[in-house]
Design brief:
Elements: H1 8-17, E1 24-27, E2 30-33, E3 60-65, E4 68-71, H2 78-92, H3 98-116, H4 124-141, H5 145-149, H6 152-160, H7 163-167, E5 177-182, H8 184-188, H9 195-203, H10 207-215, H11 221-227, H12 231-235, H13 247-257, H14 261-265, E6 281-284, H15 288-299, E7 304-307, H16 316-319, H17 328-335, H18 337-340, E8 344-346, H19 357-362, E9 367-370, E10 376-377, H20 395-408, E11 417-421, H21 425-436, E12 441-445, H22 457-466, E13 469-471, E14 474-482, E15 485-499, E16 505-509, E17 515-518, E18 521-524, E19 528-529, E20 563-565, H23 568-571, H24 576-596, H25 603-613, H26 639-642, H27 655-662, E21 670-676
Helix pairs in contact: 2-3, 3-4, 4-6, 9-10, 9-13, 9-27, 10-13, 11-13, 13-27, 15-24, 20-21, 21-22
Length: 685
Amino acid sequence: MYSSAITEHESFILRRISMARVIYGVWGGTVTDNRGKNLFEIEENPEFAEFDSFNQGNPITTFVGDRGFFVFSPDASLLDALWLYMDKAAEESCGKCTPCRMGTGLIRDRLAALRDGSSEFGDVDAVLDEIEMLAGHVHETSLCGLGQTCTRALLAALSHFRDQFAQDTHQFLVKHSMTYVTSPCIEACPAKINVPRYIDYIKDGKPSHSLGVILQKYPMAATCGRVCVRFCEMACQRSMVDEPVGIKTLKRYVADHEQGLHRELFSKDLIPERYSDDLKVAVVGAGPAGICCAYHLLLKGYPVDVFEAKREAGGMASSGIPSYRLPKDVLKSETDIIERLGGRFFFNQKLGHDFDVDELFERGYKSVFLALGCVQGRLMQVEGEDVSLNGYEPGIEFLLRVHEHVERGKPMDLSGDVVVVGGGNVAMDCARSALRMGADSVHLVYRRTEEDMPADHEEIEAAAKEGVIFHFLTNPTKILSEDGKVTGVELVEMRQTEPDDEGRRGVEPKSGSGHFLAATTVVPAIGQRVAEDCLNADDGVSIDKWGCVDADSTTLATSRSGVFAGGDCKLGPSTLIHAMAHGLKGARSIDDYLQLGRVRFFPRSRMREIINKYKIMNEEWLETPVKHLYRVPIQEMDPETRKNLFNEVEQTITPEEAYHEAGRCLRCYRIYALVTEYPIPEGCA
């Protein structure tokens, strides 16, 4: 089609040996043109080593994105692929600015006319001239990321491969394709929530619609709006102008504003068709992963029972996150959704003690989701460390004890000096809780620099305001004790080493820098792990070398048929949003397993893999003038007051503030489209 130099036989071989050879294309301004070359004269591009197929045995023939396009097959129609892309752009336009609303539709219609050879808009050259004019106008004057990027590939094609359009008329080759609309914040979110959409609804004065977008992914919106680590904000393109959009703050706003919607919306009546007990599912663990998995299974109509080792639902979100960050009534209102949907909780039921995996199947459960969490703290492995010492409190156990005292309304006997070791959010929670429990002083020891700390910056800042004393580049070497009681720690100063090949600097002790720090309580908060007594060899569930459940990363299937695992017991100590994302993924896999006996191919997941693996998403900031609008400040309780209380520190923003903050979103949507040679299997999102 492009040149007689590529024979029909060579074309056949090209499609089946490797699609890593680019016939022609433009990406990020770089033009590739291999038309007219023989097959083996086209150099394979190692960057596309796994780009040869979308699903097994199904080659990608054309790929179109926000920075350009690639054509991998000599039989592909560029015109058809660009029409597909612009058709999606016209569909996704929000309609709030004329260039994108009108321009994308006009371009789509003219491309369609070229496809079928219609002379409705004039001859080919005249139509291409008009398309180029419209595309340039849309690119230069649209008000959001979708409009500003959706014509880039088209403009590149018109600039460098204009002759292909005439060759591709009357070619209706797009039979198997998919389009995918995303943004940097969506891709950064483990749960893949459509962030710009729920922000759009806030701007439109529809907070219930906004909450509905979130509830499509998980039920714990108010919880996540308080404790999420905000991967989305780290990816927010607004930071190139001033500050990231307060995405977490807006999530909390809609969840708090629409808190009554939970009781109105979630009931057994929400589920039109329910399966019998012949397809009941057991979820082990009522933390975020287990709650989210149960939620989605219940919505699909499955009977679900949730087994929890503690006396309440929520997992570490309940007992490991202090009330000043996450009020327990907020969390309970969201975990109660499970019962309102018809699910059942069985509390004080610990896997490996009260029941095992075999017993669940004997009771008639057809599938099991393990959401065990990491509930055991890790030791520091230093001299003098002894868990039996009075005053030695591993971080997780310490937070559990704090939680129990707060629940009972009785203060914890914690006088004297407390030393917390670690740099994550658990360490921050331990330090801030110790102050509230009556410690005379709280010292936080971290072996690296403040910039290296994995804890949220806001948590570090809040701890400092409340009086926590930080010791950076410092590491414990020995715990000192007397008569079975902790008396202090020996510390050594650390210094940074030269950067390694990946640019990361290590640390090493400074000789002669050892010193003593008095302490009545030492709290190591350096990590957690899955309890060792939960699973045994008879369960048939493999454990990896890190002590986590060995489950497939895509399907979450374990080594035992019908058993899936997600959250911390699969990932190791992770985040609430990662756990909830695994809950959703686990529910989808269990649904497939029970209905089909296998887990289906996930087209959207494969598209995400392509976008992220090949770094296709545009990381360049568009040079479009944007007015500086700094994010809405969050009202907080005064540090001197709050350090003595467990009342919530941060307050929900007002409707007026939410509207202002939502208006800062730049709607950085990107569209991706691909064409394949064979049908794409239908699967889940």
